[in-house]
Amino acid sequence: MSFSDIFKKSFLEGWQGAEIGAAAAVSVMVLTSFLALYVFFVYRVITRKTFYSKNFNISIAGVSVITAAIILTVQSSIVISLGMVGALSIVRFRTAIKDPMDLMFLFWSISVGIICGAGLAEFAVILSLILTAFVLLLDRLPVARAPMILVINTTDLDGESVMMQVVNRYSEHPHIKSRNRTIDSLDITMELRTNQGSNLIRDLMNLKGMMSASLLSHDGEVTF
C-alpha cells in the first residue's frame, strides 16, 4: 500500500459522518418546529408594521426547520455536505430586507436551526428566551418621543405669523416641513411636540379664515 493510499484512507476515516437514527432526526425536527413556532408568534407580537406580511413570518419559521435538516445531513456524510455547499453557493436572495428587525428575526431563525441540528437544543431554548426578553426590554425603553404632524389649511394668506404665535404657545420648537399656497388658500405642514393637542387645535380653529387643522401622531423615525 502506497503512502497516497494510506493518506486517503486515513483522511476519509477521519471525516466519516456520524450515524443519525430516524428517531433522533425526528426529535430534532419536532423540537426545531416548536422553537420556529415560538419565533413566529414573537415576530407577530413585536412587529409594528402597518402591512403585516404573514408570508414573511411563515418563511422565518420555515427557515429554522430547513436549516436544522441541512445541519443533520451535513453531520451524516462529509460527501453530502460538500455537495450542499456547492448547491447552496449558487442561491441568490434578491428580496430586500427593509426593516432591521426583520433581519434580526431571520438570523434568529437560522441560528435556531443550526443549534438544534447540532444537537444543542437547550442552547437554542436559552437563546430564544434571552433574546425575547432583551428585545421586549429595549422595545419598552423610552428613548425619545416621535414628533406630531400638524396640517393647517386656511384662506388667510397672510395669517402665518398669527398661526405661529398660537403654535409657539403650545410647542417650543415647531418645524415647518412644507408650505403650499394657491390663489385662495394656504396649506402648512409642520412637526412639533405638545401635550395639549386639543387646546392647540381649538385655538387655531378660532383664527380668521381657518378651514381645517389636523394633528397627527406617527410611529416613524424620531428626529432630534
SSE blueprint:
Layout: H1 3-14, H2 22-46, H3 54-76, H4 78-88, H5 100-117, H6 121-140, E1 148-154, H7 160-170, E2 175-181, E3 186-192, H8 197-205, E4 210-216
Helix pairs in contact: 2-3, 2-5, 2-6, 3-4, 3-5, 5-6, 7-8
Report on this structure.
This protein has 224 residues and is an alpha+beta fold. Helix content is 58%, strand content 12%. The protein has a 4-stranded antiparallel beta sheet with strand order 2-3-1-4, covered by helices on one side. The longest helix is centred in the first third of the chain and has 25 residues, at 22-46. The radius of gyration is 29 Å and the shape is elongated. The model is unreliable at 10-16 (pLDDT under 50).
| Rounded radius of gyration (Å) | 29 Å
Which stretches of 5+ consecutive residues score pLDDT under 50? 10-16
Oligomer: single chain
What strand order characterises the main sheet? 2-3-1-4
What's the total helix number?
8
